[in-house]
């Protein structure tokens, strides 16, 4: 799901998963160092485990994005840079080759003739940590009623966003989120203020009511979701803004409390713990003061990613936009959770159509799993290592 100045829409599930992962940190790298050219002899087999139709549907958004860029727009692929128009032609050509060569070996050989492959350098261990995100679908109501009393808020009327460079170009390119109090800008209300003290009940429209505060919390984490009404109708809500407070991992808190073990720290494990220990619910949820506000979106298409385009199940990834080219054609190799609780190897072409507040550095990637409970089950368990590559057309 993300574009956030403080956090990104949709892809915040990994914020609590990654914060609990025993990953070594790496020093910051420049975009020119984040990708390295792969010699043709070292290419992976470009096997794609999803349908051509799904690839083409997702490709339409990346093509539209590149075609809308200014004529001189350049995109960095490690040591090289490419014009948007050349990338758009490259995307189109890659799709043509995929149609012409459904068998992986032939497709790989055809790509080698016309494309270069760049591999992400990865994190401290040289690989990329894959996490997952999804779009929740929650039962809800437009008006409160017994069993549906947890509000999902629109942007409050008193929330202010300030760009420092609007006041002085020499100041950092950052934004402050807050509210006015006694003629001063002060930090905006925390999660505890909003959910447990009624701080904005007269300042923000309620877009829907859901039944479970933990489900609502994870919809905030995702930054997007659908609400299924009593008559079966669906309304889609997307990210509208954030309260500007720092994100704190509730997974890490539960580890520190001794309530969970590092190997069992999925979204489902957290939900189970809070259901069994309701006396700790307020303490745990309010450990994360960050709060997301929503806006209505069209129910058609998919949830909206960072580049104001829909993201596609299995075909959209989020990565660090400061290091990797946006909306670009990529290839991933790794393992994914399965419905029976196991793991399965996979590889596929994907599009870098999203970003995220936790998706920073060359060793991070978030894969969009789709909408609903099944997607949530897989995304919540995704925390595996793999490889990330980007395809770019060869120069003249």
Keywords:
6-stranded mixed sheet, 6-stranded mixed beta barrel, alpha+beta, globular, 396 residues, 19 strands
Question: How is this structure best described in words?
Answer:
The structure is a single chain. This protein has 396 residues and is α+β, with helices and mostly antiparallel strands. Helices cover 27% and strands 30% of the residues. The protein contains 11 helices and 19 strands. The strands form 4 sheets. Strands 5-18-15-17-16-19 form a 6-stranded mixed barrel, surrounded by 4 helices. A hairpin with a 5-residue loop joins β12 (224-228) and β13 (234-242). α3 runs antiparallel to α4. The radius of gyration is 21 Å and the shape is globular. It starts with 12 loop residues before the first helix and ends with a strand.
Task: State which percent range the strand residues make up.
Answer: 25-35%
Mean pLDDT: 90
How many helical elements? 11
How are the strands of the biggest sheet laid out side by side?
5-18-15-17-16-19
First-last Cα distance: 37 Å
Reported for the largest beta sheet, the result is: 6 strands, mixed, barrel
Poorly predicted parts: 1-24
The total strand number stands at 19
Shape: globular
Short structural description:
With about 400 residues, this protein is α+β, with helices and mostly antiparallel strands. It has helices spanning about 15-20, 30-35, 50-65, 85-100, 105-115, 190-195, 215-220, 250-255, 265-275, 280-285, 375-380, and strands at about 35, 75, 80-85, 115-120, 130-135, 135-140, 150-155, 160-165, 175-180, 185, 205-210, 225-230, 235-240, 290-295, 315-320, 330-335, 345-355, 365-370, 385-395.
């Amino acid at each position: 799901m993300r574009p956030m100045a403080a956090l990104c829409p949709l892809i915040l599930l990994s914020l609590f998963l990654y914060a609990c992962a025993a990953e070594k940190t790496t020093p910051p790298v420049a975009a020119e160092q984040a990708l390295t050219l792969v010699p043709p002899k070292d290419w992976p087999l470009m096997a794609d485990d999803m349908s051509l139709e799904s690839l083409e549907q997702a490709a339409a958004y990346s093509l539209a994005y590149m075609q809308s860029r200014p004529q001189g727009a350049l995109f960095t692929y490690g040591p090289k840079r490419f014009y948007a128009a050349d990338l758009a032609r490259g995307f189109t050509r890659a799709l043509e080759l995929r149609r012409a060569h459904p068998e992986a070996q032939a497709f790989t050989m055809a790509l080698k003739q016309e494309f270069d492959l760049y591999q992400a350098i990865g994190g401290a261990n040289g690989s990329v940590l894959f996490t997952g995100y999804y779009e929740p679908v929650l039962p809800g109501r437009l008006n409160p009623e017994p069993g549906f009393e947890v509000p999902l808020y629109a942007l409050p009327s008193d929330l202010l966003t300030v760009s420092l460079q609007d006041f002085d170009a020499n100041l950092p390119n950052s934004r402050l989120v807050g509210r006015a109090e006694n003629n001063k800008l002060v930090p905006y209300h925390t999660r505890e203020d909003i959910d447990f003290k009624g701080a904005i009940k007269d300042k923000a429209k309620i877009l829907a009511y859901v039944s479970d505060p933990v489900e609502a919390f994870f919809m905030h984490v995702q930054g997007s979701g659908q609400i299924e009404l009593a008559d079966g109708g669906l309304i889609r809500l997307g990210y509208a803004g954030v309260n500007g407070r720092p994100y704190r991992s509730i997974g890490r808190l539960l580890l520190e409390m001794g309530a969970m073990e590092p190997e069992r720290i999925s979204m489902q494990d957290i939900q189970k713990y809070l259901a069994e220990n309701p006396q700790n619910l307020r303490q745990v949820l309010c450990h994360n003061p960050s709060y997301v506000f929503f806006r209505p979106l069209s129910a058609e298409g998919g949830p909206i990613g960072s580049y104001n385009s829909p993201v596609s199940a299995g075909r959209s990834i989020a990565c660090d936009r400061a290091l990797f080219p946006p909306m670009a054609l990529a290839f991933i190799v790794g393992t994914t959770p399965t419905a029976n609780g196991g793991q399965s190897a996979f590889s596929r072409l994907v599009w870098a159509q999203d970003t995220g507040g936790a998706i920073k550095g060359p060793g991070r990637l978030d894969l969009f799993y789709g909408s609903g409970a099944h997607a949530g089950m897989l995304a919540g368990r995704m925390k595996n290592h793999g490889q990330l590559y980007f395809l770019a057309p060869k120069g003249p």
